[in-house]
Design goal:
Blueprint (H helix, E strand, L loop, with lengths): L10 H13 L2 E2 H11 L4 H14 L2 E4 L6 E4 L3 H16 L4 H11 L4 H17 L2
Antiparallel strand pairs: 1-3, 2-3
Amino acid sequence: MGRNDTGKVTDAELDVLNILWQKGPSTVRDVHTVLTSLRDIRYTTTLKTLQVMTGKGLVKRDVAEKAHIYEAAVDHEKTQREMVGDLVNRVFSGSAVGLMAGALSGKKTSPEELTELRHLLDQAEEDNK
């Protein structure tokens, strides 16, 4: 993911990345406001998380203004692909079929989602030729 650490993205870091991917560059206060709507968290914890994420290369910090501005330094789709790949390997022994079966049995799937899944499967089949 373009990180200089040896660990994975934590749940707390993923929450912050999701905020930055949705809102764009944000102050600590902006991120903290959204995080407090998800769970009880102290401002200093939000600040420390962003500092750690900066060290890991997950976010970039602009210090030009008094209030530092943070933005995601990793691509949303690439991060998703890497996390799904890790999940498939760890939980489903590398089986994409196991992942799909688990995902489809875990919740009701709308007709639109099923159509999109069929399209993705057709596309994957074409790509493998």
